[in-house]
């Protein structure tokens, strides 16, 4: 089989993975706090890499998946337990399977007053303790401080890390930090009550990327078909010789 066939095959597989990422983005266009993903590619072009890893064939491979943490616009909901983050930071939450971080501030109140995500993860304060909401009415200022008539009753803290790019997508709107990466509190948090941060998906841009990926994939398919035909002809010539 001509080596070009394998080059086209690797490119086609890479484009399929790109389309999966784009489809996932589009399916979450209305998910609060969702951050779009990007698939990064690289070609094995250097002579040393070609010889050692690709056996002399130019291949396209996935270099990694990138998360775009660009701010989504803030949508006013009026919800008492809806909170949006403006600027840097994540809400820190505790699940049964560990600590996670999220930009989705669509919360609810547990039976015991605990502030919970829609997945029933406990929202944590600056001391890594679950936030217990007061039974009476309360206010939340821009810094995340929770106040009642009796005074301050807790704080909805925001967290980041020294390397903000260290956060990786766990599932949905949840992110995690690799071992060895410590979080830290955001010094000047901006929390907006009664609003939610929308996803940062640009539908038109994603659709354009989808069309481009599909067309490129089709081109790779045609190239593979051509190389298969060439390979068959070469086999025929070899048998005649």
Question: How would you summarize what this structure contains?
Answer:
The strands form 7 sheets. A 5-stranded antiparallel beta sheet has the order 9-5-6-15-14, with no helix packed on it. It has 2 domains: 108 residues, no CATH class; 123 residues, no CATH class. Helix 1 packs antiparallel against helix 3.
Explained architecture:
The model is unreliable at 45-51 (pLDDT under 50). The radius of gyration is 25 Å and the shape is elongated. The protein starts with a helix and ends with a helix. A 5-stranded antiparallel sheet has the order 9-5-6-15-14, with no helix packed on it. The protein has a 3-stranded antiparallel sheet with strand order 10-11-12, with no helix packed on it. The protein has a two-stranded antiparallel sheet with strand order 1-2. It has 2 domains: 3-70 and 201-240, no CATH class; 75-197, no CATH class. It is built from 3 helices and 18 strands. With 241 residues, it is of the alpha+beta class.
Amount of helix: 25-40%
Please state roughly what percent of the residues sit in beta strands, choosing from under 5%, 5-15%, 15-25%, 25-35%, 35-45% or over 45%. Answer: 25-35%
Q: What radius of gyration results from the CA coordinates? A: 25 Å
The shape is elongated
Largest sheet: 5 strands, antiparallel
Count of domain modules: 2
The succession of helices and strands, N to C, reads HEHEEEEEEEEEEEEEEEEEH
* Average pLDDT level: 84
Category by helix and strand content = alpha+beta
The low-pLDDT segments are: 45-51
Q: What's the helix count?
A: 3
For the termini, the CA-CA separation is 18 Å
Count of DSSP strands: 18
The largest sheet has its strands arranged as 9-5-6-15-14
